[in-house]
Amino acid sequence: MTDNLQPVIVGAGPAGVRAAQTLVRHGLRPVVLDESVRWGGQIYRQPPAHFQRSKKVLYGFDASRAESVHDTMAGLLPHIDYQPDTLVWNAEGGKLDVLRHGQTATVNYTHLILATGATDRVLPVPGWTIPGVFTLGGAQVALKFQGCAIGRHVVLMGTGPLLYLIAYQYAKAGAHVAAVLDTATLMDQVAALPALVQQPAVLAKGLYYVGWLRAHGVRMQGGVQPLRVLGDSRVSGVEWRDAQGEHNLACDAVALGYGLRSETQLADILGCRFYFDELQRAWLPERDAAGRTTVAGLYLAGDGAGILGADAAESAGERAALTLLADTGRVPEAVDGDRVLALDATLERAQRFRAGLERAFPFPAGWAAQVQDEVVICRCEEVTAGELRRTAHATGAVEMNRLKALCRVGMGRCQGRMCGVAAAEVLAHCTGRSVEQVGRLRGQAPVKPIPFGVATVLAPEESA
Ligand SMILES: Cc1cc2nc3c(=O)[nH]c(=O)nc-3n(C[C@H](O)[C@H](O)[C@H](O)COP(=O)(O)OP(=O)(O)OC[C@H]3O[C@@H](n4cnc5c(N)ncnc54)[C@H](O)[C@@H]3O)c2cc1C
């Protein structure tokens, strides 16, 4: 048994909430930190308290799961130290630097569960920086959190299941969805069916969204190559190419996204070893099936360790917490042995389903070859695809951090969280290497933007 345990969980989404519940059930009082003002994470994001929309309206088929996560967290409040509106922007062994309600503080931990979720994976097209272009997730946040649409005539473009879910949510809420433009083809989706039937309920939901959109006359096009977003001071339309030729369509807003990317920076600056995951085409922190990383006392759960979806995030949160309890001698493995086996089986099924989703909505591998020199890749530092290519050719840079040092790609406010994927694709293509070979941008503090001066004016240490 380890005395003076102080577990801290970063993230109050499905993974973080189930991790906290499990630790509390076994007598611990975790600290739960989340930069959002209310718990729920991305999928079960709650609107401001005075908004009056029902869970059914907000979460559709997922309303009962949302309710369960929300109610669980509400019930945990007397037993945990919940700190909302608290961004963890830096970490080193045993300490987290946080920004809470605009004030800096340090939170100490003996054991840490990172359940930091994901953000959109963005692949730029000409015009993507025109006002009126959002990420797919951003478009959903506008609807879920603020109850508003990103425009009157919205085009959703890219690939992934969120494309259809968000189109459905927008159309259901009364917005006009001008078109859903998917780079994946029907053949991709047919080929993925054997893997997707592993989770029939999720597959049925997806088919329902597509059927509903079709029945309501929403234009849906597969196998597209997005060409550009049109407009000057504001989006006025989109252009794309497909087997029939080039097309354009008027709209006043575009939601763009190609699946999700895990938020791995905290794991990175805490020293976790990373590996290249071919399936997700991403560098991810290594962890075992139980959620342990290569750093003692540090555990990962949910989409922050690889995209597996919300249901799997709940299982992974519980699993990581049970591992922490077992590692510290609080719960001998055998006590929760059956539960552990059940959780592992759920997570394995989710992994197989994930493989199906990647087959159904494949990464558009030709993107890097097609993206024009003038397209801005890193909007913080205004670095174009052409500048990346010229830098690589002129200097012989073949690795992402070298490229960053030479042309500032990924050096701005987002620290590469938005542009890192696209920049690595461009570098790999123009140097004839694989995305794995060009590596990844190393995580740096602050992992998310903080006000100027915060990093140098740290408050006196505060124990959690
Ligand atoms: C924008 C968006 C919308 C999505 N919508 C849907 C949907 O409608 N349906 C669906 O099935 N799936 C959706 N997904 C995927 C789904 O959200 C995830 O599968 C699921 O939420 C994963 O749960 P999680 O607990 O791992 O992470 P999340 O639910 O993402 O929770 C992570 C939490 O960590 C917090 N956090 C992250 N970094 C820090 C930090 N440095 N400091 C403090 N707090 C931090 C975040 O505020 C967040 O609350 C969406 C994903 C995104 C990115």
Relevant terms:
FAD/NAD(P)-binding domain, five-stranded parallel beta sheet, binds flavin-adenine dinucleotide, 15 helices, alpha/beta, globular, Arc Repressor Mutant, subunit A, 464 residues, 3 domains, disordered C terminus
Describe this structure in words.
The protein is an alpha/beta fold and 464 residues long. It has three domains: 7-119 and 261-357, FAD/NAD(P)-binding domain, CATH 3.50.50; 122-258, FAD/NAD(P)-binding domain (3-Layer(bba) Sandwich); 367-438, Arc Repressor Mutant, subunit A. 36% of the residues lie in helices and 22% in strands. The protein is built from 15 helices and 22 strands. The chain has helices spanning 14-25, 55-59, 63-76, 136-146, 161-172, 186-196, 200-215, 265-269, 310-327, 337-360, 367-370, 385-395, 400-407, 420-431, 435-438, and strands at residues 7-10, 31-33, 81-83, 86-92, 95-100, 103-108, 111-114, 118-120, 133-135, 153-159, 176-182, 220-221, 225-231, 235-242, 245-250, 253-258, 260-262, 274-277, 282-285, 298-300, 376-378, 383-384. The strands form seven sheets. Strands 3-2-1-7-20 form a five-stranded parallel β-sheet, covered by helices on one side. The protein has a five-stranded parallel β-sheet with strand order 9-16-10-11-12. A three-stranded antiparallel β-sheet has the order 4-5-6, with no helix packed on it. A hairpin with a 2-residue loop joins β4 and β5 (95-100). α1 crosses α3. The longest helix is centred in the last third of the chain and has 24 residues, at 337-360. It is globular and about 65 Å long. The two termini are 21 Å apart. Bound molecules: flavin-adenine dinucleotide.
